[in-house]
Design a protein that fits this description.
With 309 residues, the chain is mainly beta. The protein has three domains: 115 residues, RNA Polymerase Alpha Subunit, Chain A, domain 2 (Beta Complex), CATH 2.170.120; 96 residues, RNA Polymerase Alpha Subunit, Chain A, domain 2, CATH 2.170.120; 88 residues, Beta Complex (RNA Polymerase Alpha Subunit, Chain A, domain 2). Helices cover 12% and strands 53% of the residues. The longest helix is centred in the first third of the chain and has 28 residues. The termini are far apart. About 3% of the residues have low confidence.
Length: 309
């Protein structure tokens, strides 16, 4: 066979092989799945070569579909190169870094709309807000944030909207003293979060919180109690304390459950006539009484039936 025909055959085979490869690639990317070796994952979209004085805003994630044989964790990098671009809106292709073991790859979307704005920043004091209240009977006494200021950086429009940066505190499982790590959020004048085109540095703070037991004060009735028995033929009449009520102060959970305070037993053994005595009050645990003793007037009545009490 002449060399010219042999070379033509070889060239034809190469073209046919190339066409088959292209057709296979097109089928896999646009229709086929080759499910045995296909994976679809969401990856962060990175922006390369952003000018130092500009802020970029655009999609944060893309979907990447990969066909091939893989071992271990996939290291997939999706990026947009903004090199040489200035302020304004741009439509740019999404590119993928090399992926070891990949036969074919596709990314969705293939291109994205981004915006480059002049970079703006300002420093703000960090405020705190209680997201979940402390356990019953406790209240927040103090908060120390470290750091207590942050830098808000991003597009001029986004930065101008921010009026405060807030650290949310979940105190539901805290008692006494604790340190809580809180993610910061930027809010506008209406209390709405500002996220697009914005970066907070640092993104988190440590909040050292001190909780204390809630102290409650209320009036409770005094209830006289006795020991011994009156003389035969006598019975108790009206018994009155002065004051009738005392002030109880202490932990909320304890004080709320108490509605009256007993006196220590007043000895009425053999009594046949009215008397006045000073009675100590029974001190409840975790609370303080004021006053701690009362004057009790006891009326003793001769029983018509001659009974005794």
């Amino acid at each position: 066979m002449p060399d010219r025909h042999r070379n033509q055959n070889r060239t034809g085979l190469k073209i046919a092989a190339l066409l088959m490869a292209v057709l296979l690639w097109y089928y896999v990317v646009t229709q086929g799945d080759l499910s045995a070796g296909a994976q679809t994952i969401s990856v962060p979209l990175q922006y390369y070569n952003v000018p130092a004085d500009l802020n970029v805003s655009g999609p944060t994630q893309v979907e990447v579909k990969i066909w091939g044989t893989f071992h271990g964790n996939l290291n997939v990098v999706a990026f947009v190169d903004v090199n040489g671009l200035g302020e304004g809106a741009h439509t740019l292709p999404v590119k993928l870094g090399s992926i070891q073991g990949a036969m074919f790859t596709s990314v969705n979307p293939k291109q994205v709309e981004i915006k480059l704005d002049k970079l703006s920043e300002k420093t703000l004091a960090i405020k705190h807000e209680v997201k979940q209240n402390p356990p019953t009977g406790y209240q927040l006494a103090s908060v120390l944030l470290a750091p207590d200021h942050c830098l808000v950086r991003g597009s001029a429009d986004s930065v101008s909207q921010v009026t405060a940066v807030v650290a949310s505190l979940d105190l539901a499982n805290v008692q006494n003293i604790a340190t809580i790590k809180s993610t910061l959020k930027a809010i506008d004048a209406n209390g709405k979060m500002v996220t697009e085109g914005l970066q907070i540095v640092p993104a988190t703070v440590n909040a050292s919180v001190v909780l204390e037991k809630i102290q409650l004060s209320k009036k409770v009735n005094v209830k006289p109690t006795y020991s011994g028995s009156l003389a035969a033929g006598f019975t108790l009449g009206e018994v009155k304390s002065d004051p009738l009520q005392v002030t109880l102060m202490g932990d909320q959970t304890r004080v709320e459950a108490i509605n009256e305070i007993n006196t220590k037993p007043i000895d009425i053994s053999g009594k046949q006539e009215d008397f006045v005595t000073q009675a100590e009050l029974v001190q409840p645990e975790g609370a303080v009484l004021s006053p701690s003793r009362v004057s009790v007037t006891v009326r003793v009545i001769k029983s018509p039936a001659g009974g005794a009490q």
